[in-house]
Amino acid sequence: MALNLTGLTKYTDELATDLIYKSILQGRTFETGISIQTNVKYADALNLMTSNLIGIAGGSCGYSATGSVTLTQRDLQVCPITVFENNCLNDLEQYWAGKLMRAGSYNEALPFEQVYTEEKVQKIQAMIEDIFWKGSKDGNNTGAGAATGNLALCDGIINTLEFTSATNSVIVAGASFSGFAKADAIAIVDAVIAAANSSASDILGQDNLNIYISYGNFTTLMQALREANYFHYDANIGDFRVNNYLGTNWNIIAVRGLNGTNKVVATYAANLYYGVDLENDFETFEMWYERFQDLVYFRSKFKIGAQVAFPEFVIEYKG
């Protein structure tokens, strides 16, 4: 007699492979040479000095003083942010994950805690970079639509450049273009560099002259360079970065925080400030079991802030 299997469900082995999480594009802006200000509890003042140097003819006595020195400040304010989650492990008993749990009814430890925490830390790092560039507590449109959700937790660089008192100092380049089309990509970057040469030439001797763009626009620029037969540029293949772009001192760097925008931001890296309490605070998370609620909690607390020391030394293409 043939087997009658109509009362069974076909079997899928749900424990044959390890638990994996979706790939996360992490931020790397903070590795490009920008200034990192630590131990900021609420706000630190960036103490700035500029001078107006005026020479006078020598060869006589009784000179009159000329020139001036101006001391100013820009505040680097941080925003406290908490990521807080709770998990009822009893819910897992009815699914495949229940097989990974210890025997008995006292479920007090997440069976895949390492994968869970690794994914959380990477997502928090990505969130911090997004906020650093596109954050706006007022919900301003910083290139990827109105700032909502996580982006409304703190102000970022684009908000500072376009919606604050710094706006009038920023050098705007490439106003005749719209978007970041392949046909215009090289011309847009050339316009940014030309604006730096004419209006911000004092920064040209600085280290880490960086032009920050999104990953998508970096790829568009690379396509444009290939089609224009510019094969002699020095690119770090696979790193989404071009050093000394076409014989200039400028580096083109793709950053996650500008994804979804056509913004191009050029300055020397140390001009951008990232404020924190502890630099890797977001990696110091807590997980614990709470008996009264019968829940496993996850908590990560950190502070972040963004500021520009000298907006007049920033060249922006608004897209």
Report on the structure:
With 319 residues, this protein is an alpha+beta fold. The chain has one domain (29-56, 64-317). It is built from 4 helices and 14 strands. It has helices at 113-134, 157-163, 182-199, 215-227; strands at 35-37, 43-52, 68-77, 79-87, 171-172, 209-213, 234-236, 241-243, 250-254, 264-268, 272-275, 286-290, 295-308, 315-317. The chain has a 7-stranded mixed beta sheet with strand order 5-14-10-6-9-8-7, covered by helices on one side. Strands 1, 4, 11, 12 and 13 form a 5-stranded mixed beta sheet that branches. It has a two-stranded antiparallel sheet with strand order 2-3. A hairpin with a 6-residue loop joins strand 8 (241-243) and strand 9. Helix 3 crosses helix 4.
Secondary-structure blueprint:
Blueprint: E1 35-37, E2 43-52, E3 68-77, E4 79-87, H1 113-134, H2 157-163, E5 171-172, H3 182-199, E6 209-213, H4 215-227, E7 234-236, E8 241-243, E9 250-254, E10 264-268, E11 272-275, E12 286-290, E13 295-308, E14 315-317
Parallel strand pairs: 1-11, 5-14, 6-9
Antiparallel strand pairs: 2-3, 4-13, 6-10, 7-8, 8-9, 10-14, 11-13, 12-13
